[in-house]
Design goal:
The complex is a heterodimer.
Chain A: H1 20-23, H2 27-31, H3 33-52, H4 60-70, H5 82-116, H6 129-142, H7 154-177, H8 183-207, H9 212-220, H10 228-247, H11 249-256, H12 259-264, H13 269-291, H14 297-309, H15 313-337, H16 346-367
Helix pairs in contact in A: 3-4, 3-5, 3-15, 5-10, 5-13, 5-14, 5-15, 6-7, 6-8, 6-9, 6-13, 7-8, 7-13, 10-13, 11-15, 14-15, 14-16
Chain B: H1 4-13, E1 64-68, E2 71-75, E3 82-84, H2 87-95, E4 102-105, H3 127-131, E5 137-140, H4 147-153, E6 158-160, H5 167-181, H6 184-203, E7 213-217, H7 230-237, E8 241-242, H8 261-267, E9 271-274, H9 284-289, H10 297-300, E10 304-306, H11 319-331
Parallel strand pairs in B: 3-4, 3-5, 5-6, 7-8, 7-9, 9-10
Antiparallel strand pairs in B: 1-2
The chains are: A mainly alpha, B alpha/beta.
């Protein structure tokens, strides 16, 4: 589907060839053990901050006791009231977990897209995947599939299908129009696909204005009212996506040196791309389906990771997942505390941080 | 029918003078006396400052001039081919007996059922499509672009009756439509009736030392309304206290804040009103299934009221029905002894 040119240009940006000095290091260092630890620590700290903060004040120490009490074989009396327990366990904890998962999926997919397309500006949002997911979700909502048929929630499934259509269309357009697969054509293809899908989505929304509010609520993001059901819904997609992406980091590094070289090393570039793209789209679509349209996480996190921890996919993909999760969960804390007891759409906060960062990357691209 | 005094005042006042501010029809005319003995409701201000511009006989006094949002619209003769692109205005027109003068309404004006629904969009009206009905008067709830100018160019007078901010705006708009359609008496009667009904209902609410609290849900992501909104004003008439006020104290959210789920659970309102039964398929059951809902007293006590989204969002004659639901739900909760 995405047939990029044989032999990437040497200046393929951050996802370019593996520097020889790094490639020769022992594997523990290549993985960046220290960075992995830092990422795991960030996730743990943010998780604690996440369950302890919100518009309703609950003593953090008691929150920790309450959570420990949930573990098997441990018994603590946290002293929290029933309402506080409900707030911590039924409302905050699933939000934190979802924030971690969604952030990890968006950032991990972003890193994978950037690797597959050899384009530092690729992210689920820019490639029209969000628009595709939006169209799918809108279709499911207006046709009433979203009202819950049995135990299968059709909205995320429809969002997933829409996302696949979008990435396939953008990739195909890119491969056909410019055989070099330059960043410009890719982004233009993504913009065109997103515009088309958004137009269709707007049209359907227009024809079904009675569902307008529900569609709009989905787009704005649903992290704020999520519970454990949404977490359970997302987990299978997240596991598959993350496992495939982490398993594919080696292949992505080989792909980065060029299709010819990759083929000579026994890799099938087209198939590898397809698998990675499918996994990344699966994760991004599932994330978008439960969280709504959250922009820029897939862009700023992988680039931030590349700047501090190195450019190999072995590092960028897993670290993006860890830091992406921590970032989004932290952003969600901001979303529910800045204007407490009112909510702020989380997409607003990520975009406020992400947009300037995006411009910075653009400038760096120009300079180099 | 309202008090005779109301009625006569209205016939004189009827008309038309509404000084515009902020686009919507504003509240200079607020017909009716202020016998509103209800709780501190915003509507108790009754400044009958309306200046009757055309002091002609009711129901035949054309041409009339109606002022809305600062624009004066002159209607030469009794309109017989009206187009309404506002669901609320459609309800008002039919309620004052002007339904037979309406030839087309927008796709959302499906109440009352006899309204001539068409494909016309009230959100993105198309001037050509409207003119195709050869209207002699068009009613909009807002001008999404140059629709008014376009209709003016086509020689079609257009009334813009924006979303009501207070109950008085509703009465004013009904009176304006009465004047515009030559049904001044009918409009006055309707307003009088509504005022009487609302006053009676408000008076029937038992007094309490501790006001009951409520949460009005606009959608299942917990968007709500504060007391500053039209909807909030109606609840205040029943003496209810709004939990959402804390979420938008400065009015930055325009009176429509999105509540935090944990705030809702900890505020634990006495009453929950769902105005998202149509848009979002919500009901008492879906509410009970949400995370944390088992902590809500209103859920446990069955004090979740399912509203019709339309009735709870339009500022037309059916607000009396809306208010009746609120009052009934409120009265059903026992006043604590002592």
């Amino acid at each position: 589907m995405t047939k990029t040119a044989v032999g990437a240009s040497p200046d393929a940006g951050p996802s370019g060839p593996v520097p020889p000095d790094e490639a020769g290091l022992p594997s523990a260092t290549r993985l960046g053990g220290r960075w992995l630890l830092a990422g795991a620590a960030a996730v743990a700290v943010v998780a604690l901050v996440g369950v302890s903060s919100g518009p309703i004040g609950v003593a953090p120490g008691r929150v920790v006791l309450e959570l420990l009490d949930r573990l098997p074989f441990l018994d603590f009396d946290s002293g929290l009231s029933a309402v506080e327990i409900a707030i911590v366990w039924d409302l905050r904890a699933p939000r934190v977990v979802l924030g971690l998962l969604v952030g990890a999926l968006l950032a991990g997919s972003g890193a994978a897209y950037q690797g597959v397309f050899r384009n530092p500006l690729a992210d689920p949002y820019l490639l029209g995947i969000a628009a595709g997911a939006g169209l799918g979700a809108t279709l499911a909502i207006v046709t009433g599939l979203g009202d819950g048929v049995g135990f299968v929630d059709a909205v995320p499934l429809a969002a997933f299908a829409g996302a696949l259509v979008a990435v396939a269309a953008a990739g195909t357009l890119n491969a056909r129009r410019g055989r070099t697969g330059s960043p410009t054509t890719l982004i233009l293809a993504g913009v065109a696909v997103a515009a088309l899908l958004t137009a269709i989505q707007t049209y359907i929304q227009q024809r079904h204005q009675e569902s307008l509010r529900q569609v709009y609520a989905w787009i704005l993001g649903r992290l704020s009212t999520s519970g454990w059901d949404e977490v359970l819904l997302l987990v299978p997609y997240a596991v598959v996506c993350m496992a495939v992406l982490v398993a594919a980091v080696g292949a992505l590094d080989v792909l980065a040196v060029g299709d010819e070289e990759a083929t000579s090393l026994g890799l099938k570039p087209r198939r590898t791309r397809l698998v990675v793209l499918a996994a990344a789209s699966l994760g991004a679509a599932a994330a978008v389906a439960v969280s709504g349209l959250i922009g820029f996480v897939g862009l700023i996190i992988p680039h931030g990771v590349r700047m501090v921890a190195g450019v190999t996919h072995r590092r960028v993909v897993p670290l993006s997942m860890l830091f992406g999760g921590a970032f989004l969960a932290l952003t969600d804390v901001a979303a529910r505390t800045i204007q407490a007891p009112a909510e702020l759409p989380i997409g607003v906060i990520t975009a406020v941080i992400g947009a300037p960062f995006f411009l910075l990357i653009l400038r760096r691209q120009e300079i180099s | 029918m309202g008090s005779p005094r109301n009625f006569s005042i209205l016939i004189v006042v009827v008309a038309l003078a509404v000084v515009g501010c902020g686009g919507a029809a504003s509240t200079t005319t607020s017909a009716g006396d202020s016998s509103t003995t209800t709780t501190a409701a915003a509507s108790s201000v009754t400044t009958a400052t309306a200046a009757a511009t055309t002091a002609t006989e009711p129901d035949s006094g054309f041409p009339v001039t109606v002022e809305t949002g600062g624009a004066a619209v002159t209607i030469e003769s009794r309109p017989e081919r009206m187009v309404s692109l506002s669901a609320t205005a459609t309800e008002m027109l039919f309620a004052i007996g002007a339904g037979e003068q309406v030839v087309a309404v927008d796709s959302f004006s499906y109440y009352p059922p006899e309204a001539p629904v068409t494909d016309l969009s009230g959100f993105e009206p198309n001037v050509e499509a409207i003119v195709g009905f050869e209207p002699d008067l068009v009613v909009l709830s807002f001008d999404p672009g140059d629709v008014v100018a376009g209709l003016e160019a086509a020689g079609v007078p257009t009334l813009v009756l924006g979303a009501a901010v207070t109950l008085d705006d509703t009465y004013t708009q009904i009176e304006q439509l009465g004047a515009a359609t030559g049904r001044i008496g009918d409009a006055a009667a309707l307003v009088g009736q509504m005022q009487t009904d609302i006053d009676d209902l408000a008076a029937s609410v038992p007094a309490r030392d501790e006001p009951l609290t409520y949460y009005h849900e606009l959608d299942d992501t917990l968007f709500s309304v504060t007391s500053e909104t039209f909807i909030g004003e109606i609840y205040a008439l029943a003496g209810l206290e709004n939990i959402a006020d804390a979420a938008d104290p400065e009015g930055e959210a325009g009176g429509y804040p999105q509540l935090s789920a944990e705030f809702l659970v900890s505020a634990d309102p006495d009453l929950i009103f769902l105005a998202d039964t149509k848009c979002c398929g919500q009901n008492a059951e879906t509410l009970a299934q949400r995370p944390g809902s088992d902590q809500l007293t209103a859920v446990a006590q069955g004090r979740v009221i399912e509203l019709d989204d339309d009735i709870a969002s339009r500022w037309g004659p059916r607000i009396v029905e809306f208010f009746r639901k609120i009052v009934e739900a409120t009265a059903a909760i026992e006043v604590p002894a002592g």
